[in-house]
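Journal club prep — side note

Before the paper discussion, L.F. wants everyone to see what a predicted structure for a comparable chain looks like in token form. Sequence:
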Amino acid sequence: MPTRPELSPLPTRRPLRVAALVSGGGTTVKNLAEVIAAGGLDAEIVAVVCSNDKAREQVSQKVPGIPTHLVSRKDHTHDGEFDIAAFSQRIFDDLRAADTDLVVLAGFLSKLRIPDDFAGRVLNIHPALLPAYGGQGMHGRHVHAAVIAAGESRSGCTVHYADQSYDTGPIILQKSCDVLPDDTPETLAARVFEQEKRAYPEAIRRLMQAPPPSSR
């Protein structure tokens, strides 16, 4: 397992208090909630922070009862300039108020500045086999279209530690699937998501079972 980047130890209390950051439909949060309800993960989702109203509505429909927070990128953009520092501070203030142990990015499309007390406690899942097909602008359909255009025979997903850049943190695990000759971005996305449904809970379980990191 890769070394976590300069981090605060993952709390040992159970259930683990997990928060999710969402910009889209909330399907990943729904999957995690179902795994938890089925006893596959000793955790609870204590908060979902959404970057737009539509995402908040969809999360509330798919996983009712979980507290949702709206932290809009639009509200932190002034004269065309995005204030990433204020945006990130507001998000992590909400996560601290929810007494969050671990943060999962679940289709969250805005860049963040991760504060020191959350270093190594923020995970992301990317719908490709990093380091290929990562970076700014590579999300959702764009990733799958690029994989198909390149003629790849395999794709999949990557769970990794989030850092201050796009898709560059240490990899925790990957799961792969075939790319079929007649695939479209939509059919490939569906096959990759089946791997994501397994990968995120497995990655979280691995971290929960890992020994505390040694301090430097």
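L.F.'s comment for the group: The beta strands are 16-22, 43-50, 68-70, 77-78, 81-82, 102-105, 122-126, 154-161, 171-178. Keep this in mind when we get to the figures.
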